[in-house]
Amino acid sequence: MKLTSFVALFGAALALPSAPLSSRACTNPTVRKEWRNATVTDRLAYLSAAVCITKSPSRLGIHPNATLQDDFSFVHALLSDSLTSIYIHTVPAFLPWHRYFLRVYEDALHACGYAGPALYWDFVHDSPSPSRSPVWDPTTGFGGNGAGTESNGGFAPRVVDGPFKDWRPLYWNAGVNPHGLARNWIPKGSEGEPEMAGGKYSAEIMRGVFEETTYAGFRAKLEDPHNHVHGGVGGGLQRGEGGPGDLGANTASPNDPIFFLLHGEVDRLWWLWQQQGEGRTGMYDGVDQNGRAVELDDVLPMMGLAENGVVRDYMDVNSPGLCYTYE
Ligand SMILES: [Cu+2]
């Protein structure tokens, strides 16, 4: 890992002919850290900025009660509900779109006073026992499983501890449906799994994902374990008792701020894969939902949350607009 990081950093620095020789070159990348490797001070500052986003004014101005956090959910839902004919899942754009989305969220964290790097949750590491992950800590994490006893609008029980216990997301999918932040961890033994479907995103599963040598193959295989983290934490529609939680069968899944740590890990896995073969940083192939071959010039729509992006600007974490690496 150390060696590949070294190669990634210096390999990119040497690839000057394809990089603009501008003063904006990425010379001092931010190092993104795993949640438990960040200092407690950074974790607490991250959480208070994440709470601040749930209280910040909406940029979209679509609903009078919406906050900036609701905007993130609404944009994600719009691009997931066939409402726009634009897709960000099950297609090649999955990885660059979410990479850009994470950057927009990171900027919002900084605007809310957080000075540290974006953080991620190594759910592969925690897959044998996900409920014991420090990300659920009520003080230095995102709080635990839903445990509210009152009805929560037909959704899973409300989260009752941690910094988001009073957070009430506005949207469910792209519709207005206010509720308490809901989680419904898949229990141990269900579907023959460890808890939270951990067996579906284990190190062994991930080895299979990394055997893929084409972008299209890697993206397609990586999306499945990612889906199981969503479902494992949020609970699926069919998971019975208590109904679904925000991170599960809900296209407004950014309602649960852990979304951004989950996708930090997805982004890190893509970054790792990109370093494991020649030319992979520029590798972008496959077809979109209409069967059209994708291109690096394809647009990444942000629907007013931020400017639209272009795929080629989000391929390489060393590009000037991104300029980060992972520890
Ligand atoms: Cu998504």
TrEMBL record:
GO molecular function, one term: metal ion binding
Span of domain Tyrosinase copper-binding: 89-106, 256-267
Pfam families reported for this sequence: Tyrosinase
Keyword annotations: Copper, Metal-binding, Signal
Disordered, as annotated region: 227-246
Keyword tRNA-binding found: no
Biased composition (Gly residues): 231-246
UniProt signal peptide: 1-15
SUPFAM superfamilies cross-referenced by the UniProt entry: Di-copper centre-containing domain
Entry protein name: Tyrosinase copper-binding domain-containing protein
